# Entry
Amino acid sequence: MKAFLILEDGSVFSGTSIGAKKDMISEIVFNTSMTGYLEVLTDPSYAGQAVVMTYPLIGNYGITPDMESKKAWPDGYIVRELSRMPSNFRSQGTLQDFLEEQGIPGIAGIDTRALTKLLREKGTMNGMITVNEGYNLAEILPKLRAYTVGDVVSKVTCEEIYVLPGDGPKVALMDFGAKNHIAQSLNQRGCEVTVYPADTKTSEIIHSNPDGIMLSNGPGNPETCISIIEEIKQLSNTNIPIFAICLGHQLMALAHGAKTYKLKYGHRGGNHPVKDLASGRVYISSQNHGYAVDFSTVEKNIAEEAFVNVNDGTNEGLSYIGKSIFTVQFHPEACPGPQDSGYLFDRFMDMMKGA
Amino acid sequence: MPKNKAIKKVLVIGSGPIVIGQAAEFDYAGTQACRSLKEEGLEVVLLNSNPATIMTDKDIADKVYIEPLTVEVVEQLILKEKPDSVLPTLGGQAALNLAMELEEKGFLKQQNVRLIGTTAETIRKAEDRLEFKSTMEKIGEPCAASLVVESVEDGITFAESIGYPVVLRPAYTLGGSGGGIAYDRRQLIDILENGLRLSRVGQVLVERCIAGWKEIEYEVMRDGRGNCITVCNMENIDPVGVHTGDSIVVAPSQTLGDKEYQMLRTSALNIINELNITGGCNVQYALHPESFEYCVIEVNPRVSRSSALASKATGYPIAKVAAKIALGYTLDEIKNAVTKKTYASFEPVLDYCVVKIPRLPFDKFISAKRTLTTQMKATGEVMSICDSFEGALMKAVRSLEQHVDSLLSYDFSRLSKEELLEELKVVDDQRIWKIAEAVRRGISYKIVHEITKIDCWFIDKLAVLVEMEQALRACAPRVAAGRSIDIELLKEAKRLQFPDTVIARLTGLEEGQIRGLRQRNHITASYKMVDTCAAEFAAETPYYYSVFGSENEVEETRGKKKVLVLGSGPIRIGQGIEFDFCSVHCTWAFAKEGYETIIVNNNPETVSTDFDIADKLYFEPLTPEDVESIVNLEKPDGAVVQFGGQTAIKLTEALMKMGVPILGTKAEDVDAAEDRKIFDAILEKCAIPRPTGGTVYTAEEAKKVARRLGYPVLVRPSYVLGGQGMQIAINDHDIDEFIGIINRIAQDHPILVDKYLQGKEIEVDAVCDGEDILIPGIMEHIERAGIHSGDSISVYPAKSITEKTKRTIEEYTKRLAKSLHVSGLINIQFIVCGEEVYVIEVNPRSSRTVPYISKVTGIPIVPLAAKVIIGYKIRELGYTPGLQPEADYFAVKMPVFSFEKIRDADISLGPEMKSTGECLGIAKTFDEALYKAFLGAGIKLPKFRNMILTVRDEDKPEAVEIGRRFEAAGYKIFATEGTAHALKEAGVKAIAVNKIEQETPNLMDLILGHKIDLVIDTPPQGAERAKDGFIIRRNAVETGVNVLTAIDTAKALITSLENMDIQKLTLVDVAQI
# Structure
């Protein structure tokens, strides 16, 4: 069946429908990872967005037990070619079936490179995937322009507290749309990880007396998370060590009076170099963010820049002065992507042990 | 300025002659590195024995020594030039081994010279099997159970403790030389004995066999601060068991999930960190297809063939970055040359798929086994890029130039199902064609996978291509009924990169009709850019590949005059790196004259496919259709075909049909040189004699001509390079056999039969501007006519012909060049008998000897030819026309062979070319030049001073004299009965030995005794080659004994040995010539 991707600038790509046969409107973003499509699909940070994979052959190894949350989150999925026959010893099915099961509409057979260039040049745009050959641009374009991602954290966070048992330090993980591997990275290091819904009050966290607090990644514009930012302000006034990733990093900066801004087309992929300014070492990182912290708005006595993106110089991490708080924009939990910065979890462990 | 200010003068060691396992990729790496060093203002001293390379040009390095790659030479060079640093990691295993020897001897320390790029300790840890294994154990990286053994007994004990089959890998050898898989004790002993001898340190690794696992490679970069990145990973379609150089390889990996991908990536980074490598490194893994279990197969602590491939596959300039790292830079300080926005400290991502297919030499070695093993056999490779795997595979297949254009090209349809299943078990270069046939027969993926161990994902992709074949074939009845084919189907076929010719063949339409349909429906190739970053950042790399069904990214440029340079495709015997040298220099020359240059080529190992050589690089197959698509977009003002070997020449007609003017010598004049009738008329007009002969189409006609001329005669197909199919026939029987062979090679052109003249063979390359000619020098072959010019030792200046003959040659060259209206280069081969000069071959284009003669005369004939093509006259370019004055030194070009790599290939020399590469010896005296040339080719004598002499009857008088001289040099001579008798009669001491079919001790025992320096064995002419001699030669080659099969070569060798001392060589800086 034919499908169409319509962008808010009026560009139309025609291809073949994949996944669920329904229309969707969303923000279109591209991801450059060559492997890890399942991890991308199940990363809650993609809630409210539709993802284009720049690598042309997707679905080669099928559906493996590598989900980063309990379901797939993107509103839509855009690929050059969807593999008709996956091959991997762990494959349990095809990506096509998975997209259908998850109710995600998609489009295949389009020139994803041309689309990526368009998004790079014009910046992230809203778009629509439709199977209606009689679509009417005049009707659709205003709808596309009107679309906003909105509050998505509340949709992706867990509903109830749950615990991953361990006999090491106790970590309270604030779930703003956490990828499983954040909790697992801590749990593998022996931590008892208690996962809290995003709207949990500070008092409840403090009451549980954790050794450390982990702020997770998550979707959407950080500035819209007003009440969460208030809670984080209070958390950061305790002496409990805090480690934050991605959205958590942005929220912590906002809680300290800094500003965030939307990147033209974001960083999404597994090849971004970040420099640890303390050591001068460069690490290749897994990234997925559309917003960034404007380091020039961070008060000098509040935090130092800890990591910077080697490609474009944007902020990739902060170390808060006089506090046991450090935050990164990228994903040390990997999955998908390089595992080079996994040492940051060890650093957090050391902080919790009072080292 | 380099980051490390102590580095001022660097010695870069190249990789020497092209051999199987060490090819043009090191010219690419070395050239890139030298340019990168010079960019930093360093003085670069270059050592490489290979004159056909671009890296040995004087504009690449400051001082250029084309000298043998031996420890003695490097020592003398270091004493002479006093570099402060040596960079050995860009010249393959050859350079690395040299550096290690120097380091171990303490010479570098003594002279206060540092190794940059990587430390000796790192090299040792990565290369020494024992150290490597213990290092891997230390960091918990698994290796297959293995043991380094130094004796056959230990090998047997260990192999039998872990169970057969076992893999054997000799330490410090090239391309897996001497390695293999042993399935039982007998095979183990065979391979192990050979491997122990081939290893520089007498060590062989005996290892658990992991054949059938997925073979995955990672290319990793690390700087001195410990920053590391992976440039690319690659998956071998052929699982473990086939050398990666002989495997079809895809980048990036296709069947690995993120978990497997990252697991191996992390492992590769751990390894490069532990080994403390600074620069590039290649890590090879075997990954269990049904678990996360993996083994590290091997680490190459240097730039390798795989890194050249990774560079071209991603656009990331590995060699250039490795050179900068050697100077102390860190990855985040080096700009990404592609995006100019990002830095070298980022990992390329691909938004396309890359397929590499090896070019195997079985068309040259008809008797050789096609089986692929852990011993590499490929002479070269092709790469292609597309947005689908199927498309990339189809493009790579037709880039091979082996008369294959689809999965139908090798026909297995006549096999029964049982036979086909048996055939599938044979691991050879035709495997994907067999799998395609299996798919056509409906044999399940599971069965195919169980036999071949090739992942089902790849089998399914082959099936997609087979299904398209079938869909196209299903159109045939429609077409026969006068209707056309479905446009959607045509679109899909083109997306899968089916060439028009194949679509035409399957559907029954004419090729022109397909083209017409495509044009009417706008189904044309569009071009995408290789930008290292999947379009995330804007890039300006002019590096393109074609796709169908997508938007075009390349804009037609206007303003400058535009020239299309056609490259020479994969490296093969007969068409090697020389033509890349010519293509690159032609491109540079046109650029200097203000042209916009466009290169089309498909060889990932070469300099010409580096994206900063031409203004635009199209990485595409060199077929008429692929070139036409580029022409339609770029509309070049002309095309140059005379520098790209036969590959480019073959496109001449097609280019003319497209309306592209051929710059330089016209196509009809190229044809005139090949067309017997026209050419004979030209010779007659010029009053130039040639050996009498005739043009024939059948064996009967050939025999008629041969009888008229009298045997022996030379039989060869027209339009070939490297003497493909050329043979000397001494009777009717030979003719039948040879014509049979020629007809097996697809052939539309007639066959030439000539009187075989045994005289001196002379060769010239000349530039002609239509009026005047310029001959840089006359080259003389040491072997008499009958041995292919590419396999002969070539001497400049010619030393045994008279001044009068030289003038005749000059005059004939002038007459021929003018009659053929040559504009650019011409290569002529002559035979001189007494004062008589005969023309035997004329090629109005660049030749194999062009780089060599350019370097040793200091006359850059490729740029000169390019300027002549543009319209300059020789006189305007500062040269006096005619034969240039002779140099006051000698330069000897020596062929180098890779016989030990190709099982069952006959090594005896004849009119068919067999050498894979060449090296140079240059010196004040002929003897020293010759000595250096032999040394460069790896003939380092004496060792044991034992030799075997066995010659055909007609060579006996000369053999006696050679024997006498070897005897005087202290050699003990073993000879077969007839030869021994002749020697003794003449008073030369000789020990008669039994032939191999006779009882022991016989010749074979002598050879396997590992105490023989040299075998001189001249086989009888014609097809009646004694089986005996064949076995002797094979065994000698495989046990590393030097074998000479021409009496003239033997004479040259003893001459060089009589007069030279390796410690007292004079080194010549050719940049001063």
Notes: Residues 112-122 of chain A form the longest helix (11 residues). The mean pLDDT of chain A is 96. Chain A has two domains: 2-146, 153-352.
